[in-house]
Known about the structure:
The structure holds two protein chains of two kinds. Chain A is an alpha/beta fold. Helices cover 33% and strands 18% of the residues of chain A. In chain A, the strands form two sheets. Chain A has a nine-stranded mixed sheet with strand order 3-2-4-7-1-8-11-10-9, sandwiched between helices. In chain A, a hairpin with a 3-residue loop joins strand 10 (361-370) and strand 11. Chain A is globular, with a radius of gyration of 19 Å. Residues 115-122 of chain A have low confidence and may be disordered. Chain B is mainly beta. Chain B has one domain (18-135). In chain B, the strands form two sheets. A five-stranded antiparallel sheet of chain B has the order 6-5-4-7-8, covered by helices on one side. In chain B, a hairpin with a 5-residue loop joins strand 1 and strand 2 (40-41). The radius of gyration of chain B is 16 Å and the shape is globular. The two termini of chain B are 17 Å apart. The interface between A and B is large, with 31 and 42 residues.
Amino acid sequence: MSIRGKALIAGAYEHPRREIPDRTVPQIHAEVAVGALGDAGLALSDVDAYFCDSSAGFGTLSMAEYLGLRLSYVDSTETGGSSYLAHVGHAAAAIAAGKCTVALVTLAGRPRSGRGIVRPGGDSTPEGEFEGLWGLAGPVTNYAIAARRHMYEFGTTSEQLAHIKVAASLHAQHNPHAFLPDPVTVEEVLDSPMISDPLHRLDCCVITDGGGAVVVVSPEVARDLDRTAVKILGHGETVKHTDNGRIDVTYSGAVWSGPRAFEEAGVTPGDIDYVSIYDSFTITVLETIEDLGFCEKGQGGRFVMDGALVSPGGRLPFNTDGGGLCNNHPANRGGMTKIIEAVRQLRGETAPAVQVPDCRLALAHGTGGSLATRMGSATLILGQEDA
Amino acid sequence: MSEDRLPTDAPRPTSATQEFWAATSDGTLLLQRCDACGTVIWYPKGFCPACSSFATSWFAASGLGTVYSFTVVRKAAGAWQKATPYVVAYVELAEGPRVLTNVVGCDPGSVEVGMPVQVVFDDTGEGTALYRFRPLP
């Protein structure tokens, strides 16, 4: 069975704030839920399927009660920042199987204002006993180790990584909600403080409160809505891990999730007009675009130079909202905002300066956990309503 | 290089890992090998993910390896902030597995991918020691 064309994204909403000390995490879930349903022209009473992570109490149990939902399908798949793309794929499969017709997916968190920090893993993980002793200073340590090895094997440079941040910043200047709205130069990235060699501060994403939501519906529901919907054409997901100690940090799970999504959609990387690529760090983008097949393995550094990622006009316009590097990385998880900007592109509703002309096919990719180490990868391919 | 030893918190062994950590206090790095297929297992778990066998045996590793990849941490939290800059690395053991650890006993700026290293043990004061690696002289 394929999900191609059997479900659509009818509503999308990104919380406009980046620091929200006056709301609880469940309140933010509720705000974005109502926002996305309102965008679709639907209400909470229409929802029969609900998807969220573990950030709000007891996952779907707590939030279904909080939102007053009556459900026939629930899913709290937890693969870090890739969860929400997986949720959309699962929702499409459930709709295709006749389990539900209106699926709500929400993300919310408040890492910036202090409470509501998402803490994946923790002391209870079996691997923690062997990995929690060495002074890992958050996710950046593992991402830096991946970047170092990529540089060793392929000659990738810090300057090349900096071009990814520069492209994101050029887009963010057109987003009135962006946390970091000012363009930066390669030199400014390289001159920013080293956090964990070879990653500088400006190789890292922002830390923001916030959230977002999307509504996935059956074709029958979509037909009755006034709002332009976006068709779900393909989905792939996986977990990549350390493989019994034979870890290879130069590639991500996108090598498996990407081809599955392309095959289901019946398209190739060359057909894609716009990409939302998970950008927790610059190296996340570099490895992912290689692994999805937008360039040869090891050639990502050369690929991203000379404005390749800048919209419009670049060979691979990416993250036109400014991405996690500049705009928003709500709850320390950028997966939801990747979907939302892809929906905006396909609807022709991004900031005019960064809109890809006649954007017909978009890809959104999420990364969870630690890049190439122990991670979730999820890929969605989306198209215009008549795709 | 900082003269002070890196923070050395005691691990919390489980029934599956007690033997591993007890051996560290004698300066021995134990590994598990699958009795059925011979695969060297990391991390120790009494289960072989290669062939699904629960029959495994401990053996002493050589303590030798090379740096697979690493980072120099410049910004950290708590006790680790005082230890910056320090090296977090994957060391590829001679027996195969790549293990997360610290490289110590040298200037962090001198660490390179491929550098040969050997195991050293830092006593936790609780009957265990942490396996770290220093460059081979």
